[in-house]
Amino acid sequence: MRIRLHDLNFVPMIPEEEIKRRTSEMGKELFNRLGDKNPLFIVILNGAFMFAADLVRAYSAPCEMAFVTLSSYSGTSSTGMVTTTLELNTNIAGRHIVIVEDIVDTGRTLHAFLQTLNNQQPASVTLTAFLRKPEAQVFPIQVDLTGFDIENKFVAGYGLDYDQLGRNLPGVWVLESQS
Ligand code: 5GP
């Protein structure tokens, strides 16, 4: 089985059922850690929208959500620059923050964002990522809760795009020539 997005072919990597099971488990794990502390989930757009939707539905206590757009990717590789296209206008001092990221690759995006966040003195910061590419990580960040560790290959689906296509796919797909 394969699908085509623009000029590239992708093959299945993580099926929808496995994602559902894991994201529900992660939401419950966050609830175990943060319970009734009314955490603020900060969702890194665009890629994390689907992950965030599943995660918060498994969080069985009141919580709030905020959204920021950060990006260092163009096509299938990192540009090396992190752009913040939306300012976070929620006051986070003294709040328990859960950062919701789609995928940690080099770690550059989150490393930069964490510095901005920590300057505003939150009570705690929990970093959660749907995917992580341990071999690609360069910047020293600690992900507290990871959905799946994957190889250093380009993936799309479940919110992640290849030049805007593929975000609606319910599973994760990997670039065929690299698989
Ligand atoms: P980092 O700053 O950690 O190098 O890159 C993180 C960002 O790059 C992610 O939020 C995501 O937008 C993008 N990214 C990294 N790897 C992939 C990938 O395999 N597929 C897609 N679609 N985006 C990726």
Which descriptor suits the 3D outline?
Answer: globular
Helix content: 10-25%
Strand tally = 10
Number of helices: 3
Quaternary arrangement of the chains shown?
single chain
CA-atom Rg in angstroms: 16 Å
Helix-strand makeup class: alpha/beta
Strand content: 35-45%
Mean pLDDT: 91
Q: Within the CATH hierarchy, at the fold level, what is the topology?
A: Rossmann fold
Distance between the termini: 13 Å
CATH class: Alpha Beta
Bound compounds, each kind once, are: guanosine-5'-monophosphate
Question: Main attributes?
Answer:
alpha/beta; single chain; Rossmann fold; 3 helices; globular; 179 residues; binds guanosine-5'-monophosphate
Describe the structure.
This protein has 179 residues and is α/β, with parallel strands linked by helices. It has one domain: Rossmann fold (3-Layer(aba) Sandwich). Helices cover 22% and strands 36% of the residues. The chain has helices at residues 16-34, 49-57, 108-118, and strands at residues 3-5, 8-14, 40-45, 64-74, 77-84, 96-104, 124-132, 145-149, 155-156, 172-175. It has a 6-stranded mixed beta sheet with strand order 5-4-3-6-7-8, sandwiched between helices. Strands 1-2-10-9 form a 4-stranded antiparallel beta sheet. Helix 1 (16-34) crosses helix 2. It is globular. 31% of the residues are buried. The mean pLDDT is 91. The structure holds guanosine-5'-monophosphate. Guanosine-5'-monophosphate binds at residues 47, 72-73, 78, 101-109, 154-156, 160-162. Guanosine-5'-monophosphate is lined by residues 47, 72-73, 78, 101-109, 154-156, 160-162.
